[in-house]
Amino acid sequence: MKPMRKLVWMLCASLLLSAQALLAQTREITGKVTDSKDGSALSGATIYVQGTNRTTKSSPDGSFSVTAPTTAKTLLISFIGYKNQVINIGSGNVLVKMEQDVSVAEDVVVTGYKNRSKREFAGSAGTVKGDAIRATPIASFDQALQGQTPGLILRATSGQPGNSGSAIIRGRGSING
Fold first, then answer.
1. How many Å is the Cα radius of gyration of the chain?
2. Among 10, 27, 62, 143, which has the highest number of CB atoms less than 10 A from its own CB?
């Protein structure tokens, strides 16, 4: 009876150890996404672990962290207005320097769920060029859009710094935010 009990304990111990080894087959990949020209952080870049369904977005300082299986070899990083990059996963931090894509031939409309070319987009969309925003002396982002987009009314709810305002798109009976 004792040899059988010893065999059962050894079998249980080996199962627990193998389960621990199976759980350890993922790793944490960290890094930072920046512009290749000026080194500024790119917030909102999408990082895909190729061959899996794992994705993440870069934070406002450009940093990211994603859990990936140890079998994963590459990351695909994309950001609107920049060329996609495929990076080999090594040990340590990943530094991604994105190059601007100056060959974009047509306008892209960014919706809440998918990027579409302007030709495929059936809705109404307003465009504000970056040059128009840079040329306007503003204190906040909502001031940059005020008067630039038809049908968009922006109101400050208070004069306190950091308080959010309200946005009314195409009248009060439409989308309110």
1. 25
2. 62
**What stretches of the chain show up as alpha helix (H) in DSSP?**
2-23, 130-135, 141-145
- Give the torsion sign (CA, 107, 58, 102, 83): negative
Q: Assess contact for 73 and 87: CB atoms under 8 A.
A: no
Domain hosting residue 149, numbered range: 125-176
- Confirm if 165 and 155 have CB atoms less than 8 A apart: yes
CATH code for the domain of 68: 2.60.40.1120
Q: Specify the pTM.
A: 0.51
